[in-house]
Design goal:
This protein has 76 residues and is mainly alpha-helical. It has three helices and two strands, in the order ββααα. The model has no long low-confidence stretch (mean pLDDT 88).
């Protein structure tokens, strides 16, 4: 195993192996959060008849995520 030296301490190389339970749970929660925000945006736009934003939210999911979080917190 090769160790990199910097100044007075050693850097650990990137760990390769199984994903930890904490990391898996974090990714699952983050994915559920993003999906929920995106779905909120789609439903909100469909219900309010805002077709341009509906198309943008469906085509570019980051737009939908930001809009969905904005709907949750009353920004839209």
């Amino acid at each position: 195993m090769m160790r990199l030296m910097t100044a007075d301490r050693q850097m650990q190389p990137w760990r390769q192996g199984n994903m930890g339970a904490r990391t898996a749970l974090l990714l699952l929660v983050l994915g559920a959060f993003c999906y929920s925000a995106w779905l909120t945006s789609i439903v909100f736009c469909a219900a309010s008849g805002c077709r341009p934003l509906l198309i943008a939210s469906a085509a570019f999911f980051p737009v939908g995520i930001v809009h969905g979080v904005g709907v949750w917190f009353g920004g839209w």
